[in-house]
Design goal:
The chain folds into two domains: 2-238, MetI-like fold (Orthogonal Bundle); 241-272, no CATH class. Helix content is 69%, strand content 0%. It has helices at 2-9, 21-53, 57-68, 72-83, 93-120, 124-132, 137-167, 180-187, 196-230, 233-236, 248-256. Helix 1 (2-9) packs across helix 9, helix 2 packs antiparallel against helix 7 and helix 6 (124-132) runs antiparallel to helix 7. It starts with a helix and ends in a 16-residue tail after the last helix.
């Protein structure tokens, strides 16, 4: 079985052409990227507004609960049946739209709920202190709430991306391409027996599954790396080097001397 997978994966002929593995990967990334991108445009600002104002929290709870019971494959088939009669000619829209709609419905809840939860997790005392300094509501959101909520928001984005990449595979069963295509093609070749065609189908099936898993892990690694290096060091407690840290005793000495370089990372603080 492993030999079948390796033989199929390393065969250059399986990677080239319109229906090759490279084309499948590009299609899969495109469909998944569109769904996650549109979901981010919808759910992120909505989650910010709900989390900042506290209004519409029941919408978040209801959306998340509904998404857990979403019959993805059944909904794809139903939408395909409803949409396809409205298109004529050679177009992929009857196949693309049902899949994109379902993927969008999957991607919105984790981004929405994590954005809302991230803002709600900010310490109220921090908000009050910011308002006490004269910050407006928009400034509190941008400079206080959003930086503190950012790790949780990124976690929601990563969760949405993984769900979408995994579920996009099912789109092959209604005629869409992507990495679900080799899996679907292999399962249509009948029972797996000790024949040459069965060994080829086994390799194709395992290769499709492997590439879906590898793509999901790669995207999650990229997003995790982005999260690591874009999260405020004040939130993570991570500093570039030990020289960024200032001991309390040194802070007192610098304050007594009237110096302003008291904070980690060279930040300026008013002299005492």
């Amino acid at each position: 079985m492993i030999g079948d997978w390796w033989s199929y994966l390393t065969d250059p002929d399986n990677w080239d052409g319109r229906n090759g593995l490279w084309a499948n990967i590009v299609e899969h990334v495109t469909y998944s990227g569109i769904a996650v991108g549109v979901a981010l445009l919808i759910a992120f600002p909505l989650g910010l507004w709900i989390g900042h104002t506290g209004r519409g929290a029941t919408l978040v709870v209801g959306t998340v609960n509904a998404s857990r019971a979403l019959p993805t494959f059944g909904l794809m088939v139903l939408l395909f049946i409803l949409i396809s009669p409205h298109f004529t000619g050679k177009t992929d829209l009857p196949y693309i739209l049902p899949v994109e709609i379902v993927l969008l419905l999957l991607a919105v809840p984790p981004i929405l709920s994590n954005t809302y939860a991230g803002l709600q997790s900010v310490d109220p005392a921090v908000r009050d202190a910011a308002r006490g300094m004269g910050m407006t509501g928009g400034q509190v959101l941008r400079q206080v709430e959003l930086p503190n909520a950012y790790p949780l928001i990124m976690s929601g984005l990563r969760s949405a991306a993984l769900q979408v990449i995994a579920t996009a595979t099912v789109g092959a069963y209604i005629g869409l391409g992507g990495l679900g295509a080799p899996i679907y093609d292999a399962t249509q070749q009948g029972p797996f027996q000790d024949t040459e065609s069965s060994h080829l189908a086994t390799g194709e099936l395992l290769t499709g599954a492997f590439l879906v898993a590898a793509l999901a892990l790669l995207i999650d690694l990229v997003l995790a790396t982005i999260q690591r290096y874009t999260t405020s060091r004040g939130i993570t407690g991570r500093y570039r080097s030990s020289s960024d840290l200032v001991a309390p005793s040194e802070v007192a000495v610098r304050a007594a001397e009237g110096r302003t370089d008291l904070a980690p990372g060279g930040q300026q603080v008013a002299a005492l």
